[in-house]
Design goal:
Blueprint: E1 4-14, E2 17-26, E3 29-37, E4 41-46, E5 52-60, E6 65-69, E7 72-74, H1 81-93, E8 95-106, E9 117-127, E10 138-144, H2 145-154, H3 159-167
Parallel strand pairs: 4-9
Antiparallel strand pairs: 1-2, 2-3, 4-7, 5-6, 5-10, 8-9
Length: 171
Amino acid sequence: MIPRCIAEQERYRHRRAVVVEERWVTVDGEVLRPVVRFPTTVGIIACPVPGRILMVRQWRYPVRRFTVEIPAGTVEPGEDPLAAAVRELREETGWGATAVHEVLRYTPEHGTSDETVILVEATGLHLAPLPPDPGEQCEVLDLPVAEARAQAIAGGPDARTLLALARLGAG
């Protein structure tokens, strides 16, 4: 039997996420499941020269610490994900790109969330800064891939960054 959702109740709403409780009919009867609904996000692999990658040292409120990660951000409603990647790259690093292409699309936590992450590669990098989002504290790092990997791992990396660094190889 394929489970069937029969009801959904919103428990919390914020511009960045909505928490709902879903009621499902399963082979074992009815069950309740919490779901966090997130908008699609993008992570950007941006290498200004071969062997180096742009990273950001950024305060992450949920984990209450600075992390070193690839530039990333939220796709706004109605926004093309590739355009969002260029915008986020400019906001977080001050670099623009003449081209971006999708590398991978995945769900980082499909047991509790419907978020989709799109990993993109940016090429044709050039300086093109935009103001950061309110509350964002980003320090731009232009690092050799091996150093980026070491710093990210030391700080407890996110999946986007791990996948980006794995794509770039041993560095």
